[in-house]
Amino acid sequence: MKTVEEQGEVTSGELAMMAGVKMPTAVEVVKKLEEMELVYRKPWGPIKLTEKGIRVAERIVFRHRIIETYLSKFLELDNENACCQASLMEEIDDTVVYAMCSKLGHPCECVHGRRIPHFSHEGGRV
User: Fold this and answer.
1) In a 3-state reduction of DSSP, which class is residue 23?
2) Any idea which fold 60-126 has?
3) Which residues pair with 48 in a beta bridge?
4) pTM more than 0.70
5) Domain 4-49 carries which CATH code?
6) Would you call 67 helix, strand, or coil by DSSP?
7) CA-CA distance, 118 to 86, in Å (whole number)?
8) Residue 115 has what DSSP assignment?
9) Cα(81)–Cα(10) distance, rounded to whole angstroms?
10) CA atoms within 13 A on the CB side of 69
11) 115 with 107: CB under 8 angstroms?
């Protein structure tokens, strides 16, 4: 099964299934994301990220993949545990994530072999 990152779009049903929630919950979340201008969709069509949504998503992906790679490499957690722990560390400060990235040598891929998008300390893409 392809990830949303690979597909570029997702249906409400797929989103609900991936998140482990019921369809009405997924639809409500999509409505909120539309209000924030992070996603768009045509009626009954697939959900796609806007340019703003792509920037936000890539920043989240960067943070998660750097943290999980750091936990795996330096704390020797297995890849799945590192991924789970990274999900719990969402509030960690950007300066810490950038330090982890630097310590790792600015890797291009996470422990699962997925691309890591990179950002400068000022917030722009590198």
Assistant:
1) helix
2) Arc Repressor Mutant, subunit A (1.10.10)
3) 9, 40
4) yes
5) 1.10.10.10
6) helix
7) 17
8) B
9) 27
10) 26
11) no
Inter-axis angle of helices 79-88 and 51-74, nearest 10: 130
- Per residue in 40-94, pLDDT (tens digit) is 998 888 999 999 999 999 999 999 999 999 999 999 999 999 999 999 998 899 9
- Give 2's contacts (C-beta < 8 A, 6+ positions apart): none
Gap between the Cα atoms of 97 and 6, Å rounded = 24
> What is the pLDDT at residue 12?
87
Identify the helix (H) or strand (E) that includes residue 63.
helix 51-74
As annotated, the residues of the chain forming the CATH 1.10.10.10 domain(s) are 4-49, 60-126
In the three-class reduction of DSSP (H, G, I as helix; E, B as strand; rest coil), residue 55 is classed as helix
